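[Automated response] Your request has been received and processed.

Submitted sequence:
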Amino acid sequence: MKTIVIGLGNPLLRDDSVGPKAARLIRQRLEGDMLCHRADVRVSEVYAGGIRLLDAMAGFDRAFIIDSIITGKPPGTVYKLTPQSLPQTRNCGCSHDMTLPMALGMGKMLGMELPTDIQIWAIEAKDINCFGEELSLEVERSLPMVINDVMDVLK
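Generated structure:
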């Protein structure tokens, strides 16, 4: 089963960078541990969501997406979501982009070969508006749990 792990977010916006940071750590684990090495798994960093995810996911059987989220819950809260269970996102407010469910629907209409299994790990962010490469303490504490969960599902 061809799987792509996507770390989604802007690497220069504090907690929004949790996705790319998670992708780097998962890639290191997969490359560093011969027991974890998987030729059928690709790890990628994508810096914007919505329609841009279609190209990253095309041709894979399943996709695991790691991203930050803001719902008003305590920072560091981890959610396991599907495209159908995603709350409304900020991307929906932009006329030049679309939400993940909308992008998936468009991809299907265009006949793209998209994953049938899409799982999303989202970590409640504390700060996604300030420039910086460090995560908030709350998000930093949740990151290992998400990485371990993704690695368990990959096994």
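Summary generated for your ticket: The CA atoms of residues 75 and 124 lie 5 Å apart. Helices lie at 18-32, 52-57, 100-109, 137-154.
If you did not submit this request, please reply to this message.
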